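Dear colleagues,

As part of the handover before I leave the project, I'm documenting each prediction I ran so the next person doesn't have to rerun anything. This entry is a single chain, and its sequence is reproduced below.
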Amino acid sequence: MPRFSIIVPSHGVAGRLSQALDSVLAQSYGDFELIPVCDGPDAPAADVTAGYAERDTRVVPVHSPPSAGLAGARNAGAGAATGTYLLFLDGDDVLVPGALAALDARLAETGDVDVLYAEHERVPWWEGEPTNPAALLLPKTPEGAFAPDQVPQLTGVQLPAWSAAYRRAFLTDHRIHFPDGHFTDVGFGGLVALRAEKAAVLREVVVRHLVRRQGSRLSLPGEHHLQLLDQVELVLTRAAELGLHGERTVPLFDHLFTAVLKTAAHPRRLTTGRRAFFRRASRLYRRHRPAGFRTPAGSLGVQHRLLASGAHTAFRALRGANQAAVSVLQAVPRPQGLRTRLRYRRALRRPVDPNLAVYCAYWGRGYACNPAAIHAKARELAPHLRSVFLVEPDQAHTVPKDIEYAVIGSAKYWDVLARAKYLVNNANFADAVVKRAGSVHLSTQHGTPLKKMGVDQATYPVVAAATGSFAKLLARVDRWDYNLTSNRHSTEMWERAFPAAHETLEYGYPRNDVYYTATADDVARVRRELGVPEGKTAVLYAPTHRDYHTGFETGLDLEAFCEEAGEDVVVLLRAHYFYDQGRARNTGRIIDVTAHRSSEDVCLAADALITDYSSIMFDYANLDRPMVVYVDDWDVYRETRGVYFDLMELPPGPVARTPEELARVFRDGSWAGPESAAARAAFRERFCQFDDGRASERVVRRVLLGQPPEAIPPVIPLAERLPAPAATTLARS
């Protein structure tokens, strides 16, 4: 029997779950079992936990359906536990180093208490200065174990469930479990404190709790706040049944109704049902108010008296609900220009058009990327929708003739943005765009993140300066309803980089569908269009931009590379789109494809890829063609830009650090050898999880047609996918 069972619910926290599990497995004290609770075998967290279970026998995953909520997940974990003591850890929190050793040492001092309370830290989501609220909530206690009657201020209802260790036999004997619904920690903590015969306190931080940017679910508006009263009634009713004396019930009553009044006085928590909440709270107050309870002084005491008398109207006036209302004009961001602003405001007053979809890619650079692929599939599966693509004035000529578009900044642009039901972008819409009720915003992203993104850039000065206001960035992110990912790595990193309340769709990138649907004729056609000579090996060179460079620098003499690599090699040069000058710069065996509209076409034409840190490597991997990483500034890039993983430890093929090494890789054939293939296979296993040729269909059905998740086509296993053929493969055949 292990000393500790650590139960970790994982719903909605797949992006940070590995940090929680790692913090447990890294403990110096090893006598424990770790029980992650997943939604089901196909849930995002299930893959994460399965890998841990394979590597460590102490990891024992169990399942609990999302409908059971947090309480159900914790109860399922407790039911599977075999440890002497239970610890509950949220999936986006961590155990501090040495936590289990400290708990065990304290239990050795106090003996087997029913509950051992401990301190915890709250860390702001931007990793700011942590606080230790439990240090204030834990009153002075005896040095060793004590009976709860000795410390009546320790009611348990103010502390989260993960700020204590619980003796499993005690919970089982008294049939204590987490009550259903929201605010389950209040009910559970109160029941534990009421039935415990022996308790103790550890004055050390055990858990580091991450405060989410969007706040606790319990602080968000909604009818779930009514369930706080369920927990209050449960605890106070049990206290009455046990016949506790006033010294115990007075602080318990005070703590519970402090929480109740905080909710009742908060104008945005209860958007509806405030009067019903107040009336029920008033009845509970009168029914359970213990003898000897004295109302506090000041405004809080007035609130107590108004609640006791059921005076809702007076209570409303006291809390100043009317003053909390904010003018719509103050809350709504506005475009520049009086005429445009007035026009946009008028359009916002018109109904949302349920059949209007607006698309944009790369801040208006044209008909491209994931938005274009979704647009094309929507014309097939949702022909009733009117689709409008947004483009900059100098890119309007690039839009296919049968595609409706609006020039950014025009009157039509603001009209369609104001009224569209669906808004799809691979970057972000302008700050001035309002997220209307009933509209659906889909962020498709435009790559898999190797470099730090979003708020993770904040600690990199060069990048942060170029990014601008992170507050404005997060305001744009808050408009998202859905965010698209092509692999589990992206799911986890986007959750960190863009903390908000949107839903993640693990459907793959629609732009990558073509890598599985293109034919040999398509490959040959694209090569002719790009001017690739017949029989030549086309090597795509696609470096990313450097935040510490002011312009495009290849860092490589491409003509010299061609001479060294072999006479059959030609290079397709594709600079980052930041450096797109709109014209080709062909020289000798170098074919400049930077201005070509479709990066997917360019990848189809290439027999191999040379890149550095560009996200194109993750997309190109779907073609299962050779890749070579050329990095002459990895250390500088990693320190200046920041990365999410060490590319040198998991490259998609051979790594070259000098022009000579790069030429040798192609000259001796190792670019396409067995070691290259093995590296590529491992890379594809990790980063090509959801791209299978049907991503655009999944997105259209779920987002634009509103079909339920269970109706969406499943992802085809990687081993069963057949990528588009390469030209060299065709030639050999």
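The mean pLDDT is 88. The two ends are 62 Å apart (CA to CA).

All the best with the project,
I.
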